[in-house]
Recover the amino acids of this structure.
């Protein structure tokens, strides 16, 4: 009965109209409107991998032809796929070409300022040695960060709802992860209609304009960048020319990326096992004087591990002091001290990229990983403005000159030729040792110590540090013929012209 | 012109409607009381503020029919109105379990949670409401408010700001009844129309001549086959005596049409004075809002837009003496929004002016 069916429909229509749809549907949101709104308003545009990478690429392409090549090579990698899908998703399924255009231009406008700046910081490092990232551009990161990145990726693919759900879980588990809160807020705000009538829209707009947001955006950008631009396969930071297996781990900090890389060391060489977001000094890096709120740059060793119970809450899960100022720093008149790797206070999961008084700050779960692994006195910590990554053959090549210098030093000592041995020392050479050796001529002491015996140097480590000067921190043990052990030394060498000269030595035991 | 059913042509089943039909079918047994006079009486008592009386009546009714969702819902609203939040939560929660296809109980749970600052619970409830009925506008709007509050909270956590300084509590809209009583005259017709037996009125109704302004029906073929809902037993509702409408004059139709178009144009040009003047003095905003609040709300929603366009399609006007009903498809675009929906304006004549008495979506 078509007729009564029509009426039945009307019955239902009345129900719908009067019972359920009491308000006009002005704010009915469909998927496409949602995404368009998102593209227009969301601060996530800074953070979304698609946006970051796309604009990164754009920035580089504009810069040099070299980076055009890089962009091309990367296009083969998985990161490129992520990018193109992200781009499609973020611009995403807009209902009209106009909206798509608006979305894209909104994106590039924002990216134009923030992202390119960051790209420029790391570009110097990236340009020289960077190769396409190995497969799996997003590596396993600390749990909270990995989950945050998963939210970005979902968002980038246009999966706004799942992204929102994951972000909600993340802030539930890590309520003090401020960047996660920001992302959650952005995803929620992206669901709102473009209207100013909600009681909270004013406060949202106000908070978006808060200068502290910039720090969170920066944190987001750096986390993403570090996870997208992975160190090339089979490379190590250029400071690690050689590392004895007595150091089971090594740490390298790249301040430009706000990243700490942890390597496991074995007879097969250094292998990157994890990396973590970190914060450095409020005033950046290159510490010179006490109180300058900068993080020192150089090669250091962990000198102790402080019991968290003895520390203020502020330092979180623990603290690992390093030997700043090292002899090279002292030689150059640098001052200050108390540079630690430490955790975060209870109310903050992570801190801004530039936040400390010079320490390197990590999230507590990340620091705990580190605490389990470091060896006091044996785990090197490189802190660099921006790490350069080199291959094993290149590291061997670069260690040739210091190797021959040390062999020369060893041979001169063995031959008892004081004049020849003296050439290896700078006039202001200093030795520090557990035993007092004041008033002892080092050359004299060395010759007596060696007594013309054949000696084998073992467990060689070369840490190369190059800024204005070219320095090498060499750690080794020596074993005299017929004996089981000898001194363990850490020597600081400075290159003068083509020659390496000793300016400091520590007798470790 | 009699109160003829609108030509079917102009009415295709939205998924929502179909879902509803299904819901009505599946819980048909539980919802025989669509029109029960008691519901209306309780609702009237509530509107009159006689909450105790309303409660007594609701409880008496529930003694007989303890599972009746409409009355249980009304009771929940009374509990809410009388500040018995926990009881209201229990009532609405039980309704979401017994009749999960109804969005209203979820919505009202959300209202309570939000008033307790439990915005995440409010969000979850509203998302359930919308899952149940995606085009459920009140829940959508409430969800917008809740998202805004959650976003604001997340931002202040991101910035580690003191959260106590967030000012006004978002005020979510309570749904007052599951199925609001329809204006006099309308419901009985609908009810009888629902009856499987050919109702006298339906018989008497001549085949509807297309309304003068209406474009030729085009959607007949496109209309999906309606869900075969179980025929409802005819209600005992008083048989209506539909007063045959006086023949609608073409002039009245034209007047109404021009009033509707003027209303749309005032809206589109964001001319608030003209827009609000289109609504008569006895206009009642939906959702129990006061006229003043409604005007403020409208002002905020309209003036803030960078541009608005309101197009009217398939306008069908039915004049009945001093009253008229204009039904049409409203295509609303503002900024990034683009919403097409059915709209019904009930108009009333005063002098040679037509004013809006009731505005509703759907139909």
């Amino acid at each position: 009965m078509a007729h009564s069916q029509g009426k039945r429909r009307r019955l239902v229509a009345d129900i719908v109209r009067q019972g359920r749809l009491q308000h006009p549907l002005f704010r009915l949101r469909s998927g496409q409107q949602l995404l368009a709104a998102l593209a227009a308003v969301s601060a996530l545009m800074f953070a979304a991998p698609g946006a970051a990478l796309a604009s990164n690429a754009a920035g580089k392409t504009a810069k040099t032809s070299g980076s055009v090549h890089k962009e091309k090579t990367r296009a083969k990698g998985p990161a490129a796929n992520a990018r193109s899908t992200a781009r499609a998703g973020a611009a995403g399924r807009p209902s009209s070409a106009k909206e798509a255009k608006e979305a894209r231009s909104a994106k590039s406008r924002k990216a134009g300022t923030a992202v390119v700046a960051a790209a420029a910081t790391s570009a110097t490092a990236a340009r020289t040695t960077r190769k396409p990232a190995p497969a799996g551009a997003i590596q396993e990161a600390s749990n909270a960060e990995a989950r945050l990145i998963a939210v970005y990726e979902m968002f980038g693919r246009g999966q706004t709802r799942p992204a929102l759900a994951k972000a909600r879980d993340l802030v539930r588990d890590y309520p003090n992860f401020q960047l996660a809160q920001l992302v959650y807020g952005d995803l929620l705000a992206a669901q709102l209609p473009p209207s100013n009538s909600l009681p909270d829209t004013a406060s949202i707009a106000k908070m978006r304009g808060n200068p502290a947001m910039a720090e969170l955006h920066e944190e987001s950008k750096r986390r993403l960048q570090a996870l997208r631009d992975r160190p090339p396969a089979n490379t190590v930071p250029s400071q690690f020319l050689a590392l004895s297996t007595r150091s089971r781990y090594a740490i390298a900090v790249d301040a430009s990326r706000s990243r700490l890389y942890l390597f496991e060391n074995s007879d097969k060489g250094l292998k990157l096992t994890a990396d973590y977001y970190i914060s450095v000094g409020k005033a950046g890096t290159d510490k010179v004087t006490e109180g300058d709120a900068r993080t020192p740059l150089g090669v250091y060793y962990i000198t102790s591990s402080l019991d968290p119970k003895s520390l203020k809450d502020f330092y979180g899960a623990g603290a690992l002091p390093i030997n700043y100022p090292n002899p090279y720093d002292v030689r150059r008149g640098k001052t200050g001290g108390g540079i630690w790797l430490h955790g975060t206070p209870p109310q903050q999961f992570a801190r801004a990229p530039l936040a400390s008084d010079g320490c390197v700050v990590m999230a507590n779960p990340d620091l705990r990983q580190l605490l389990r692994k470091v060896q006091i006195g044996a785990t090197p910590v490189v802190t660099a403005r921006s790490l350069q990554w080199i291959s094993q053959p290149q590291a061997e090549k670069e260690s040739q000159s210091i190797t021959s210098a040390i062999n020369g030093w060893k041979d001169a000592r063995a031959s008892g030729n004081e004049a020849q041995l003296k050439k290896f020392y700078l006039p202001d050479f200093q030795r520090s040792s557990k035993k007092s050796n004041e008033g002892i001529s080092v050359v004299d002491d060395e010759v007596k110590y060696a007594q013309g015996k054949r000696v084998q140097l073992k467990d060689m480590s070369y840490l190369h540090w190059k800024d204005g000067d070219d320095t090498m921190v060499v750690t080794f043990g020596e074993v005299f013929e017929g004996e089981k052990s000898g001194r363990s030394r850490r020597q600081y060498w400075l290159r003068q012209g083509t020659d390496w000269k000793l300016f400091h030595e520590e007798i470790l035991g | 012109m009699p109160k003829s059913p609108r030509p079917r042509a102009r009415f295709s089943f939205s998924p929502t409607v179909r879902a509803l039909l299904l819901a009505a079918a599946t819980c048909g047994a539980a919802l025989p009381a669509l029109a029960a006079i008691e519901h209306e009486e309780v609702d009237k008592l509530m509107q009159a503020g006689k909450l105790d009386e309303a409660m007594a009546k609701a409880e008496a009714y529930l003694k007989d029919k303890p599972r009746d969702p409409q009355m249980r819902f009304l009771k929940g609203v009374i509990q809410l109105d009388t500040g018995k939040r926990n009881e209201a939560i229990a009532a609405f929660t039980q309704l979401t379990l017994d009749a999960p296809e109804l969005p209203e109980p979820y919505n009202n749970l959300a209202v309570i949670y939000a008033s307790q600052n439990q915005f995440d619970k409010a969000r979850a409830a509203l998302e359930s409401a919308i899952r149940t009925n995606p085009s459920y506008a009140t829940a959508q709007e409430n969800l917008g408010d809740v998202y805004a509050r959650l976003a604001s909270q997340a931002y202040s956590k991101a910035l580690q700001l003191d959260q106590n300084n967030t000012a006004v509590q978002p005020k979510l809209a309570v749904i007052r009844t599951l199925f609001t009583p329809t204006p006099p005259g309308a419901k009985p017709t609908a009810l009888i129309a629902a009856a499987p037996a050919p109702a006298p009125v339906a018989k008497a109704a001549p085949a509807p001549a297309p309304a003068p302004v209406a474009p030729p029906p085009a959607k007949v073929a496109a209309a999906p086959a309606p869900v075969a809902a179980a025929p409802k037993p005819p209600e005992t509702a008083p048989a209506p005596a539909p007063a045959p409408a006086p023949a609608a004059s073409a002039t009245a139709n034209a007047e109404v049409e021009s009033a509707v178009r003027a209303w749309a144009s005032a809206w589109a040009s964001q001319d608030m004075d003209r827009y609000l003047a289109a609504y008569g003095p006895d206009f009642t905003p939906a959702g129990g809002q006061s006229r003043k609040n409604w005007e403020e709300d409208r002002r905020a929603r309209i003036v803030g837009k960078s541009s608005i366009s309101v197009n009217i399609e398939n306008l069908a006007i039915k004049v009945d003496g001093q009253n008229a009903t204009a039904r049409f498809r409203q295509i609303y675009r503002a900024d990034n929004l683009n919403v097409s929906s059915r709209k019904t304006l009930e108009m009333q004549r005063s002098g040679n002016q037509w004013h809006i008495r009731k505005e509703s979506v759907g139909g």
About this structure: Chain A touches chain B through 68 residues (CB under 8 Å). The CA atoms of residues 454 and 482 of chain A lie 9 Å apart.
